[in-house]
Every structure is written in structure tokens, then in C-alpha cells.
Amino acid sequence: MVLTFNLTLRYSVYETRVQFIPLKNEILYIQNYIEFEIIQTGDKLVLDFEIEGVNDNNLLIAPMLLIIFVENAFKYAKITRALKIFISIKLHVKDGWIYFSIINSHDLFPQYLTESDETSGVGLHHTLKRLRLIYGEDYDYKSSQENGSYNVELSLKVISI
């Protein structure tokens, strides 16, 4: 666990200084984050995590771009009334695009529906702004909430060396 924390900290401090990093590094960072969340949530978590088509070391992505969606999924799934929380994370590369989707349990306790949180949505807002600045028209973002789940779909044009 200490080694995983060290790798996560090293990534967030040193590897994010450049505009683009290997997609494999971003995925490893997300996997390390998920390991910490699994420790925290234990048996309550039902996780579906699938990665496909990320074989090319030259595939690049803006650093720390996907993690905000993963963090939000865990944050909001953990404050549901359900005995089990569900999170599905899928990423695949196909035809020059990175396809990322995340679905999480989303059934908030009543106090979370009425309380005002001034910081709520700031990370997502900044991430969407970064997407526009970095990828211009070469991305697509959709989110929806239905049937007790929150869904995010993000497509990014592949950047390669």
C-alpha cells in the first residue's frame, strides 16, 4: 500500500508537468487510485473495470484528465443509500479515438440534495474547460443521470508521438 501511494504521489507531482503523457501511465494512476478506494469501501463495492486496445506506448493523453471522473464516481457512489455501490469504468482505443465511460450508483441521501456545497462541481468544471482548451473540437463529452446511476461518456481523438 505504501509503494502504491508512493507511485501515485510521484505521478501527480512529477509526470504531470508535461502537456501529454503516455495513456498507459494515466491508466496506471487510475488503477492505483482504485486500489485505495477498494481498501476504503471493502465488500460494499461492486467494480467493473475494463481496459482494451491500449497496447501502443505512443498513445498520449493530457495528464490527470480522466481521474476527476473516477474520483467523482467514488465520491457520489459512496453517499448513496444502497448497501452495495456500483462503479463501471471502461476505456478502449479504436479507430483513432479513446473511448472512456464511467457509470456509478447515484441515489443521494436527502441531506445531500438540499445542502449547498460551494466547491461542488469545480473539478468537473475545470476538467471540461481543459478539454476544450487542449482538444478543441476533437472530443465529445456526455453525462446523464437515470435509474439510480450517473453516466459519463468521453471520447478523445488519439494523440500519438
- Provide the helix percentage: 25-40%
Overall SS class:
alpha+beta
Report the CATH superfamily: Histidine kinase-like ATPase, C-terminal domain
**Beta-strand segment tally:** 8
Order of helices and strands: HEHEEHEEHHEEE
Main sheet summary: 5 strands, mixed
Q: Hey, roughly how much beta strand do the residues contain? A: 25-35%
Spans of 5+ residues with little confidence (pLDDT < 50)? none
Described by its quaternary structure, the protein is single chain
Return the CATH architecture: 2-Layer Sandwich
Main-sheet strand order equals 2-4-5-7-6
Rg over C-alpha atoms, rounded to the nearest angstrom: 16 Å
- Based on CA inertia axes, which overall geometry fits? globular
Short key terms for the protein model shown above:
single chain, 161 residues, alpha+beta, Heat Shock Protein 90, 5-stranded mixed sheet, 3-stranded antiparallel sheet, globular
Verbal overview:
With about 160 residues, this protein is an alpha+beta fold. The chain has one domain: Histidine kinase-like ATPase, C-terminal domain (Heat Shock Protein 90), CATH 3.30.565. Helices cover about 40% and strands about 30% of the residues. The protein contains five helices and eight strands. The strands form two sheets. A five-stranded mixed β-sheet has the order 2-4-5-7-6, covered by helices on one side. A three-stranded antiparallel β-sheet has the order 1-3-8. Helix 1 packs across helix 2. The protein is globular and about 45 Å long.
